[in-house]
Amino acid sequence: MVRRHKKKLIVTTGVVAVSYFVTQYVSSKVNQFQERLKEENFTKEQIKRRFKQTQNDCYLTFLSLLPLLTEPIYYELNVEDITKALQSKRSKSKGDQQRIQNHPPSQQAQSQSQQQQLQTSDSQPLSTIFSDDFSQGGENQSNNHSNRRSDKSKTQLWNDLKIQSLTRFLTLVYCESLLIVFLHLQLNILSRKSYLKTAIQLASETRGIKLTDNTKDKQENEKENFAEQAFLSFSWWLINRGWIDVRNKVEQTVEDTFGEITPRQELTIDEFAILISEVQLRMDRYTNENLVSLLVPEENLEFYLLQQTNDMEFLSEFNDDFSNTQELKVLLGELKGYLNDKQQVGGILNLLVTVGISKILDNFNLEKQQKVKLASYLMMVTKQSNSLLSDNSLDNDVLFTMNNLQELDDLSAGVYANF
Question: Where does the chain cross the membrane (predicted)?
């Protein structure tokens, strides 16, 4: 009986054995696939988490640097001083008016015309009073062309206020947009580099592979830290040099666009926005053509920048190893590569500016057909420019909106994925 079924038993046993080994092999492959899938999902989740954290770091870094950027802009374009000078002129005019009222009748009759010119109402808004003052300023214009505001006529002061209030507003929008773009490029480059190194190290440990000895690895980390710290110093250029070029170009463009418009001229919000857009069109071309030079110094000025932002100990250690310079050059080369992309990076910069300007103009709360004097727009611009300051708050609607554009996230994702 056994002999009769021996062949069948052998065949059956063989089939079972093969099936067992096949099952074990398939099970092993499935387990490997599941493990690999888990690793991939973990990696993706880590990338996603770190990417999100990096974007948040970009915003917090932007807010921390904002006072350094805006302080010199406010100092050089001191609109408030001009406003005080105009108020002083008005107070002096009121004093003259009171003296005229105390003159004898004959003198009062002789000065009746002058009295009518100087008369204003205390119940009028400040911008309206200044507008009335401006219309009379030409008759009292001083022949003294000194830069001191106390020696300027009302006409001159009003022209200063017109140019400087608009220049400050647009300089703030452009410089902040430039800083936002710069930080998103810079920090995503560094974060991606750091993540890639961590991922490689983690993978090697998981698989029991020792890439380098600890001493050498530590030395490499120190070298990279020098290069990365130097790279982070480069925001200094916009904050201390680049903004001046932006200011000069904005001022010239504002003068060309608004030069013939008097503070008494009435405009709808759409008409005012069209004038602003004319300035923006020329400024967009300028910033796109000069994006690299506004954000990164020429190569011969790079060490000068490092001298301004680091102590002598750091500079000495940085210069001791030529690989630090090489690593910094690689980082700057990638940064400049993105900045030279006028279509993507230049387009995002233009969009940031448009969003910033639109958010400010929306805060004016004017009806489309409502006409107000340019003087009123200048006062609103001056007030709303404060929305472009951080005030140590994370709830600034204008700044938060600018920093959270989808297009900006897309740019950052492209940088982060560029392994």
Answer: none
